Amino acid sequence: MISEERKSEIRKNLSEIFDNIEKAKCDDRKVVLLAATKTRTPEEINFLAECGVTHIGENKVQELMDKYDAIDKDRFTMHFIGSLQTNKVKYIIDKVSMIESVDRFDLAKEINKQALKHDLVMDVLLEVNVGGEESKSGVEPDKALELAREIAALPGLRLRGVMTIPPICVDVEKQKEYFRRIVGIFNDISSAEIENTKMDYLSFGMSGDYEAAVSCGANIVRVGTGIFGARDYSKKN
Ligand SMILES: *Cc1c(COP(=O)(O)O)cnc(C)c1O
């Protein structure tokens, strides 16, 4: 159950976020607000549809599977946004419409294999480790174009753009530097005009920096805490 109080809190947060996105845009492009729904219940997630949210993203395969049946799938487009083990692709291939976190060729090959098996073409984003942090997933920036070409050669995938999780910066200007770097990589791949790609998505920006991200050119922002409040991991696992 989700209380009226909780509903109005989520509704209020969302209306502020939608407003802030509009204000941060410096053109008339469409920006997708993707709700990052880890640790949230299906009831909370389904409520988002009533507040104008069209896209949701899960970052763990098991959690996605656990919630899948209870999620109102007719009302949402679901993306996978977390790091993905090759042997788990088979569980999500027919459940999500985009995998945002493709960062290596063996993962792309497995997505290709599973996609062909299901007679579908999976939209994917190339995840780039724009800060070069060892702890983070993502392809190194100077290998991004090469991996994009390799992905494009696989018929079961269609490359739609780039995604990144930059290092956490207190300084907005520093953060924007990372954002401009991912935009540069996006532009390099786009201008290479690789066949079988349709480069139209830039996914970066989370609760703390989605406005800066939008002002730098993001058209998917992935927001969790900003919509729902702080996560409580103690209830899970
Ligand atoms: C959780 C998550 C987000 C959103 O993080 P918040 O700080 O809660 O907005 C964005 N992207 C990915 C990949 C995530 O796992």
Describe this structure in words.
- The protein is an alpha/beta fold and 237 residues long.
- The chain is 39% helix and 19% strand.
- It has 9 helices and 8 strands.
- It has helices at residues 4-24, 42-48, 61-68, 89-92, 105-117, 144-152, 172-191, 210-216, 225-228, and strands at 32-36, 55-58, 77-80, 98-102, 122-128, 157-164, 197-203, 220-223.
- Helix 4 links the parallel strand 3 (77-80) and strand 4.
- Helix 1 (4-24) runs parallel beside helix 8 (210-216).
- It is globular.
- The protein starts with a helix and ends in a 9-residue tail after the last helix.
- The model has no long low-confidence stretch (mean pLDDT 95).
- The structure holds pyridoxal-5'-phosphate (PLP).
- Pyridoxal-5'-phosphate binds at residues 36, 38, 59, 81-82, 165, 206-207, 222-226.
